[in-house]
Amino acid sequence: MTMNRRMFLMAMGASLAVGGTAIAVRGVIGVASAAVTEVVVWKSPSCGCCEGWVQHMRAAGYSLTVHDVDDVDPIKARLGVPANMQSCHTALVDGYVLEGHVPADSVTRLLRERPVAKGLAVPGMPQGSPGMETGVKEPYAVVLFGTPGGASVYEQR
């Protein structure tokens, strides 16, 4: 009987060790897969600042699928980007809309915090925003839009 109990306890210990290892491995895999987040972008094929934003996002570790289209307006309408939030390119990331030259670190914060919103926008094309590096830096707001309480400044840059 003692031998059976000992074998049972050893089996339970081994089972717990294997289970703990599986949880640890799953955690590592989850972290690794979260590091590569897919962003789908619609932009004009001739827009240099849009391409600059795409490179900014790739440099930050995001994986981008880029669709060059002659008219981005139908995409903006389909995704519900308000007219006062619009810029030159539109993107989707994990269910959120990104409009314009939104900094990669703002996107990372958005995905970490997961607010109830349609997405983030940098209305217009402010100089000094990602992709609009002209040597001049003008202050701009990163706006959280499509929230129950209306649009609000998410970050001031």
Overview of the structural elements:
40% of the residues lie in helices and 22% in strands. The protein contains four helices and seven strands. The longest helix is centred in the N-terminal third of the chain and has 34 residues, at 2-35. Strand 4 (96-100), helix 4 and strand 5 form a beta-alpha-beta unit. Strands 2-1-3-4-5-6-7 form a seven-stranded mixed sheet, sandwiched between helices. It is an alpha/beta fold and 157 residues long. The radius of gyration is 23 Å and the shape is globular.
Give a short summary of the structure.
The chain is 40% helix and 22% strand. The chain contains four helices and seven strands; from the N terminus they run αβαβαββαβββ.
Which key phrases capture this entry?
157 residues; alpha/beta; seven-stranded mixed β-sheet; 4 helices; 40% helix; 22% strand; globular
Q: Write down the secondary-structure element order.
A: HEHEHEEHEEE
Helix content: 40-55%
User: Major beta sheet, specifics?
Assistant: 7 strands, mixed
Structural class: alpha/beta
Topology, please?
Blueprint: H1 2-35, E1 38-43, H2 48-59, E2 63-68, H3 73-79, E3 90-93, E4 96-100, H4 104-113, E5 119-122, E6 141-145, E7 152-156
Parallel strand pairs: 1-2, 4-5
Antiparallel strand pairs: 1-3, 3-4, 5-6, 6-7
